Amino acid sequence: MRFKLIFSITSLMLIICGVGMVIPGIADYINHGKETATPFFLAGSSTVLCGLIFRKLFKTDPEPLRPKEMFLTTTLIWLVFALFSSLPFYFSIYDMSFTDAFFESMSGLTTTGATIFTDLDTMDHGILLWRSLTQWFGGLGIIVVALMVLPSLHIGGMHFFTTESSEKSDKSAPKMAQTLKGIIYFFLLLSVACAICLWLAGMSIFDAINHAMTTISTGGFSTKDTSVGYFHNPAVEWIITFFMAVSGLPLIIGLLVVKRKWTTIKNDEQIKTYFWVVFWSVLLISTYRWHHASFEPLAFLDILRSTLFSIISVMTTTGYVTENYMLWGNFAMVFFLMLLMTGACTGSTSGGIKMFRYSVFIKTIKTRMKSLMQPHGVFVPRYGEKPINDDMLIGIMVFIGLYFFSAGILTLILSLFGLDLLTALSGTLTSLSNVGPALGHMIGPDKTFALLPDATKWILSFAMLLGRLEFITVIMVFFPYMWKRNI
Q1: pTM exceeds 0.85 for this model
Q2: How far are the Cα atoms of 58, 226, 279, 320 from residue 234, in angstroms, in the given order?
């Protein structure tokens, strides 16, 4: 393990993280003066200084990373980012413990959206902007850094893209670099377009920018305690619903639209599955709620809008809230518990198991059933027009197995600290899937995670990292075989 090379790469990320803290510092200095801006400048200068010291101590010639070094470097970058991103929270005037600061930071960078803050409406602009920036950086920022910085060191930025998404590509590095640039431009375009639309719909410029960053990154941090429900604006809800839905699609779709590859988009199975699940989920929950509203015609459109918003928010793992869906009845609550595990499309910034894996899993089950009915027949599961190979199938089965195994173990551990079953289970699932709001009287959609014991916040922070890096990347660091000298 070439630690000098790993720490050298990490030091570059630290410097970028520190520079990013200047933005909310300037915003606070302009709006509130020196007192609230000082923590950002102090945290930023400390982070940049540490990055420069590490850069000096571990300066080395750039070399390609080996697979085991990619796993360690990716995990280390996320941990270091979360650690130093917590400094503005810890140094702020809001008297946060280090545990709370780290939890908020990890929640932001993993685009989870679980928060411990309770008075967002009265907070300074700087701290609110930093929360949004951590989610925006977490959504695509680290991939941007991997693309723009690492190739100059002759280290392929695609290494970090593949380990973060756990999907392999057979394309050449130059071709994938070009693709990633297109993804970045599409991500930026969506962010700007969302901010403009929200501003035109009645949000202030500050709120529009913050909500655009956390919508496109499918993060869900809001500038208000009651999230998007604060604005009581149907236009804002429809706009955010649309951009959440688009952000749940593979980011590569932007390039396909530019190249007018409509057939490719139309025939993509996970996109069709994604919209199919959204449609039937909204129809089912809306009908269920409408029945409890005695089928009042005037109530249906409001029910449809709030149901669509909530389901898209949970499925894309954004985590915005307009209503407390725990009040919709037991059936709706159990349904949302299942949605916490769903996720949107592979290739998006959302978390969860994702539609691609569900599609392959279901096709494999169908193929197995056919083979049982016709033992002498030859049946090959296909995704689109291509057969599903063994490597892909094993990878998906391993991911799903690790997801549910981790969910069970972490739920059991949380219960040791006195959490009830619903709180422990939903807290685990929302962290592993990077959704944000959970269920229960303590961490429900209208609550925060502030009342949880400190030990559980560290456990959930680990769960967020585990889910965001899709299990294997983190688990490999603890796998003894990875540390052998001959691999």
Answers
A1: yes
A2: 53, 15, 20, 14
